[in-house]
Write a structure and sequence with these properties.
3'-5'-RNA exonuclease activity; exosome; alpha+beta; single chain; OB fold (Dihydrolipoamide Acetyltransferase, E2P); Rossmann fold; hydrolase; 35 strands; rRNA processing; disordered N terminus
Length: 1103
């Protein structure tokens, strides 16, 4: 050995006293081994060893802050402000938080800050440092011990770093600090002393302009005062000493009544909850609150319905939905949406049905049509409730305890009195704020700047919910900006979906820095990639050989989807006689607009001669057609195996400035699905499948794949009933059967029927999920992708957009080793990368690590989809808000895609991609009545003799239809699935919940009126409507088709007129050019007549 190593084994002891969640006091004695190689982790330190590992504090920080245990436990959120830098957290403080916190949330929050590179925060292991550790004193409290250890650490940091920095100890326990200082040897004259400040003093001196931190501190102090009040003995049910847990469970048959002076009953002790779960008399699940009936309706999605052991009569009731209804806030017992709760079922005679009528809040909330498979279960709650008949009921229960809270950051608004605030509010005091999420109850908040909060959206965190309060207590965290500002509303959407975006730190961006010379040396036409290449038999379209590896793609042409589509399917031209005799290349060139237009579309062809341009154009056209043929064949085979081709409606926002996507919103344009989109998508699916096969072959337990579970049978019920109303029968036993059924469900007279069925199929799908092949306990059959009909699938083709693709790239490159062909051993394409990055098995995630990463990606992927949908709703609302009420663009054609209870239906507006509720009977009791001649809707008062009834034909297993009956004249108006109606789009502006879309019925369908002179009953209605139904439906469809034909003819005429106008302008320009030639007769004539033209005539001619 070249150097001698000294191993220091100085041992000491540490006694830890704390209370368990059950209230039991525990005293532990631990051995502590002390050492000298515990580093300060500061870049400003002159010792190289202190800069060797882990997160380091920047050298430009001049004030280092050590946080005491009490401040870290109760005020850590203040130190999360990015402006506060140089935070040193000692192990003593971290242990104090872990031992004294009532739950794990504060400890986890600090751990996340230590792991977050954006936070300027480090952990100092002072209890392992020989110069910083001291054993606890006799009868010394945990807080005093933590303060004493932090003082010693602060003193050591100041001595270690010298005059280069100032060390500040944040503590309110100054008596202990003074005692420690009196017993500590002063630092040398060259070193300054440690500064000891309370948190308010620290903010006032060093961050006087950080008003947000001051507001947060005030709110936290007020919330802490509530916590430190005398404990409420009714928070947990008091159990006599002679009563066992099983006896507590047996006596909890119905909800307990609140104690005098309390609003809610106490929760059952944790030991009794566990006993009830083991016996099967209690059920565990996740609480899901209704979006539009938040105060009255909620569902508990059972996480383990098999615990119903001793109640066999409930197995059938829970087998179909695995959900239990919780009615009202009292039965919810202070649980918030997302909490893991324990419930007990009510007696069967107290079970009730859940209303499927359109609520007042839902009638003001239209939504964007889902464009991805896997609609979330919470969004299916209102639609699935309609499947419950009037005589069926749901199992109902009540919350007896809460296992874990799901409290998060909530965006809230202080609603003025005119918008519902009960009573006025003073500048300082407690106020009720309304969360942006309708499912969350209002929150009590203490503030010192109420007038400022009334104009902003801000973040609030819930601290507690005591049984004596109707509302939970919370504290202010951060302001987002003024209400209605686009940036504020965008931040609201991100935070509400747990996608808060912060600026990257310098340490994170350092690895991505690239010199200007290196950047200039890389041509924009050369792109490094990991590729999959196939050798295909063109006769049978079978894959003969596959090559995986690194390649450098040198693009010959940069084509957009639109340009490739124009080459594949050139636009029609009205001048056909002259072009029919042209060669194919020349014909394609003329259809694309000529050489000048082609040079603008494809810049690579701009400087070529015409002959060379034609050759390249023909070669490009044949290549595109070959790709389309290959992709079409692959798609046809995949669909034959059961692949689903679902429809989606995507709407793009057209801005005034299309380049920068800024300015006014000019229009909402449905995105056109081109053949090129489908071609590229199919080839990407093909590549993803083969990469998944290769990864699983080499690393069967360390691969990241993507699976799509089959939907639950009950999710198809709405789709089946909807299809049955048009006489279609859907087989949902397998994806192949469903695909064949949907292909056959074609109505040649109304193409919108097929679109509605495909949209409902999309909503019935479950979510596709990333998973680890070695840690998620799945069988090989569960690896499959239901929607794509593939046994293996992953994401490989979009590494610039998805982290999952980067993980798959690493697995694939590790599997390839030297990047040669995986089959033949002789690649057909050689890598030109001079120094490729080589991955080994040590660079891959373990199965458990990969499983955690996959769960995170699934959560983020789902949240991103929801934010995309919510953002689209926001822009749609902004678009319609700027339009006058009488603007024709507000009127839109819609098709009824679902009936809701007995007061309305759901309409799909394809023009704008909107799906929303339309009331036939509004919340004020007014009923829509259509004029027999024009079909225009008039809203009749509640006492006008009209009633709305949901009618089911006993001979048909469909959704039935809605009838508006006039009891005075016996007239009946009918609304049924797939009827076309006209709606107007309005904007509902809520201070607390932002902008939203609202649909209102303008005209009913042409089949709405059924005249009758006899009293209305079900039998009469059935006979009356059945007789003329075919005629009415055919007339409606013919009318729609005629309208479509007229629109197409008008569009073709407008295009022809535009081409004619352009041709006229070109002809006129040519004539003018010839007239201005010096040799033209026009110039000779001007020379002859100019001397004899009078001045007035010359002036008139000039003008």
């Amino acid at each position: 050995m070249s150097a001698a190593y000294c191993i220091l084994r100085e041992r000491s002891e540490k006694t830890v006293k704390y209370k368990t969640p059950q209230g039991k006091e525990v005293c532990l004695t631990r051995e502590v081994y002390l050492r000298d190689d515990v580093f300060c982790k500061c870049l400003i330190c002159s010792k190289p060893a202190c800069k060797s590992e882990g997160n380091l504090l920047s050298a430009d920080i001049k004030n280092y802050v050590i946080v005491d245990g009490y401040e870290a436990l109760n005020y850590w959120e203040v130190f999360e402000f990015e402006a506060i830098k140089g935070i040193i957290l000692t192990l003593s403080t971290l242990n104090f938080v872990q031992q004294q916190a009532a739950n794990k949330r504060p400890y986890k929050r600090i751990q996340m800050a230590l792991e977050d590179p954006v936070q300027s925060c480090i952990l100092f292991d002072n209890e392992f440092h020989r110069k910083c550790f001291r054993p606890p004193l006799f009868a010394e409290t945990a807080l005093d011990y933590a303060t004493r250890m932090n003082w010693i650490a602060s003193h050591w940091y100041q001595s270690h770093l010298g005059q280069s920095v100032s060390v500040i100890l944040i503590t309110n326990n100054k008596d202990v600090v003074a005692d420690c200082a009196s017993k500590t040897t002063p630092l040398s004259s060259g070193n300054q002393a440690v500064t000891v400040l309370s948190l308010p003093e620290f903010l006032q001196i060093y961050y006087p302009d950080l008003s947000g931190a001051k507001m947060l501190l005030d709110s936290l102090e007020a919330s802490l005062q509530v916590k430190s009040a005398p404990p409420d003995q009714t928070e947990v049910l008091h159990v006599p000493l002679d009563q066992t847990d099983s006896e507590v469970v047996k006596t909890t048959i119905i909800p307990n009544a609140p104690e005098p002076g309390q609003m809610y009953p106490a929760h059952i002790p944790e030991s009794a909850l566990m006993a009830g779960l083991r016996s099967g008399q209690f059920l565990r699940g996740i609480l899901r609150v209704s979006r539009f009936r938040a105060a009255t309706e909620a569902m508990v999605a059972l996480t383990d319905a098999s615990t119903v052991k001793h109640q066999p009569e409930l197995k059938q009731a829970l087998a179909s939905r695995s959900e239990v209804a919780v009615r009202g806030m009292q039965h919810r017992n202070r649980a918030v949406d997302g909490d893991v709760v324990v419930i007990r079922l009510l007696p069967r005679d107290q079970w009730t049905a859940v209303s499927s009528n359109i609520s007042a809040s839902e009638s003001n909330a239209a939504e964007v049509v889902e464009t991805v498979t896997g609609a979330p279960e919470p969004r299916r709650e209102e639609s699935s409730l309609d499947l419950i008949s009037d005589h069926s009921v749901l199992p109902c229960g009540f919350v007896v305890g809460i296992i874990s809270r799901n409290w998060r950051d909530y965006v809230c608004t202080l609603v003025p009195e005119s918008d519902g605030q009960p009573g006025g509010f003073s500048e300082v005091g407690w106020v009720l704020v309304t969360p942006w999420d309708r499912r969350i109850p209002r929150i009590r908040l203490h503030t010192t700047q109420a007038s400022k909060l009334a104009q902003e959206r801000f973040i609030v965190r819930i601290d507690s919910w005591v049984a004596s309060s109707n509302y939970p207590n919370g504290h202010y965290v951060q302001s987002l900006g003024r209400i209605g500002d686009l940036e504020t509303e965008t931040q609201t959407l991100l935070i509400e979906h747990n996608l808060a975006v912060r600026a990257f730190s310098d340490a994170q961006l350092f690895l991505w820095k690239c010199g200007h010379a290196k950047f200039e040396s890389q041509s924009y036409r050369i792109r490094y990639a990991v590729s999959v290449l196939w050798e295909i038999d063109f006769d049978a379209f079978e894959v003969l050989n596959i090559w995986y590896g690194r390649t450098v793609i040198r693009s010959s042409y940069k084509l957009t989807y639109e340009v490739a589509q124009r080459i594949y399917d050139p636009p029609k031209t009205s001048v056909t006689g002259k072009l029919d005799s042209l060669p194919p290349g020349e014909l394609l060139l003329q259809k694309l607009g000529g050489t000048k237009e082609l040079g603008e579309l494809i810049p690579e062809l701009k400087n070529l001669s015409k002959d060379r341009m034609l050759q390249e154009l023909i070669r490009l056209e044949s290549s595109i057609k070959l790709l389309v043929e290959i992709a079409s064949t692959i798609r046809a085979r995949r669909v034959a195996r059961g692949g689903l081709e679902l429809d989606s409606i995507e709407v793009a926002v057209r801005f005034a400035d299309a380049q920068t996507r800024s300015g006014d919103l000019e229009d909402l344009v449905p995105k056109e699905q081109l053949e090129m989109h489908g071609t590229v998508a199919e080839l990407m699916i093909f590549a993803n499948h083969w990469v998944a096969r290769r990864c699983l072959e080499v690393y069967p337990d360390r691969s990241c794949l993507r699976r799509h579970p089959p939907p639950r049978p009950e999710f198809f019920e709405e789709l089946k009933l909807c299809a049955a109303s048009r006489g279609f029968s859907l087989d949902t036993e397998s994806n192949r059967a469903l695909s064949a059924s949907l292909a056959a469900a074609e109505d040649p007279k109304d193409p919108e029927v097929k679109r509605v069925l495909l949209q409902l199929t999309t909503r019935a799908m479950t979510n596709a999920l990333y998973f680890s092949t070695g840690a998620d306990n799945l069988t090989r059959e569960q690896f499959s992708h239901y929607g794509l009909a593939l046994n293996l699938y992953t994401h490989f083709t979009s590494p610039i957009r998805r982290y999952a693709d980067m993980i798959v790239h690493r697995v694939l490159l590790t599997a390839l080793g030297d990047c040669r062909s995986a089959i033949s051993g002789q690649p057909t394409v050689k890598s030109v990368c001079s120094s490729p990055i080589v991955f080994t098995e040590t660079d891959l995630f373990t199965p458990e690590q990969l499983s955690a990463v996959c769960r995170h990606m699934n959560e983020q992927h789902w949240a991103a989809q929801q934010v995309q949908r919510a953002s689209m709703e926001l822009f749609q609302a902004l678009f319609f808000r700027n339009k006058p009420e009488d603007d024709p663009i507000r009127r839109a054609d819609g098709i009824i895609c679902q009936l809701r209870g007995s007061n309305g239906f759901i309409v799909l507006v394809s023009r704008f991609g909107i799906r929303g509720a339309v009331c036939v009977k509004d919340p004020q009791g007014q009923i829509a009545w259509a004029d027999p001649q024009s079909g225009n809707i008039s809203w009749m008062p509640a006492d006008s003799g009209l009633e709305v009834v949901r009618v089911h034909n006993p001979n048909r297993s469909d959704c039935g239809h809605l009838e508006v009956r006039d009891t005075r004249t016996s007239s009946v108006q009918r609304y049924q699935l797939f009827d076309h109606v006209t709606v107007s789009v309005h904007v509902s502006d809520s201070v607390a919940h932002g902008l939203g879309l609202r649909l209102k019925l303008l005209t009913g369908p042409r089949s709405v009126l059924v005249d009758g002179s006899t009293p209305v009953n079900k039998a009469t209605v059935a006979l009356t409507t059945e007789a003329g139904q075919n005629r009415i439906s055919s007339e409606l469809i013919e009318s729609v088709q005629a309208t479509d034909v007229q629109r197409r003819q008008k569009r073709a005429l407008d295009e022809q007129m535009e081409r004619d106008d352009a041709q006229d302008e070109m002809d006129q320009d040519a004539v003018i050019a010839r007239l201005h030639e010096p040799t033209s007769l026009y110039h000779h004539f001007r020379k002859l007549v100019r001397p004899y033209v009078p001045p007035c005539a010359s002036s008139d001619e000039t003008s």
